[in-house]
Amino acid sequence: MTPDVGSAVTIGPLYRSDAARCAQLERVLFPGDDPWSAQAFRDEIAAGHHFLAARDGDALLGYAGLAFVAGPPQPEAEIHTIGVDPAYQRRGIGRALLLGLLGVADAVGATVFLEVRTDNVAAQALYEAEGFTVVGLRKRYYRPSGADAYTMRRDPKQ
């Protein structure tokens, strides 16, 4: 089930040509924690990882990426990134992107992991609402800020 993000917002594939806009959003969203460069986005897409975009017409409002890190018989995936333009947050876009990634993981029965800053209460609440639980703590995970991260896990939906 995809939340209502407004009739003009669509969720679809992220393209290499979106990399500069993604990097721009990263600098706004994660200024103290080594935001991804445009090249990092291009490399992740080229590697075949699953990336989604939220758009309003031609405007890129958000992005999300998932990588499979283990295959059958016990597939595992990691959510590498989710970001939404601050002007469009709290409208269900982040949840729609997350649900899109989880649908891909669930299709192959993958357990999904992610890291989230311990001080990012809004993101933690979103992840918990979608079935993630905290399974670990990574001290000084984010660089260069040194912020801690929780590792969260979600079992596949059958």
UniProtKB/TrEMBL annotation:
<dbReference type="Pfam" id="PF00583">
    <property type="entry name" value="Acetyltransf_1"/>
</dbReference>
<keyword id="KW-0808">Transferase</keyword>
<dbReference type="GO" id="GO:0008080">
    <property type="term" value="F:N-acetyltransferase activity"/>
</dbReference>
<protein>
    <submittedName>
        <fullName>Ribosomal protein S18-alanine N-acetyltransferase</fullName>
    </submittedName>
</protein>
<dbReference type="InterPro" id="IPR000182">
    <property type="entry name" value="GNAT_dom"/>
</dbReference>
<dbReference type="InterPro" id="IPR050832">
    <property type="entry name" value="Bact_Acetyltransf"/>
</dbReference>
<dbReference type="GO" id="GO:0005840">
    <property type="term" value="C:ribosome"/>
</dbReference>
<keyword id="KW-0687">Ribonucleoprotein</keyword>
<dbReference type="InterPro" id="IPR006464">
    <property type="entry name" value="AcTrfase_RimI/Ard1"/>
</dbReference>
<keyword id="KW-0012">Acyltransferase</keyword>
<feature type="domain" description="N-acetyltransferase">
    <location>
        <begin position="9"/>
        <end position="157"/>
    </location>
</feature>
<keyword id="KW-0689">Ribosomal protein</keyword>
<dbReference type="InterPro" id="IPR016181">
    <property type="entry name" value="Acyl_CoA_acyltransferase"/>
</dbReference>
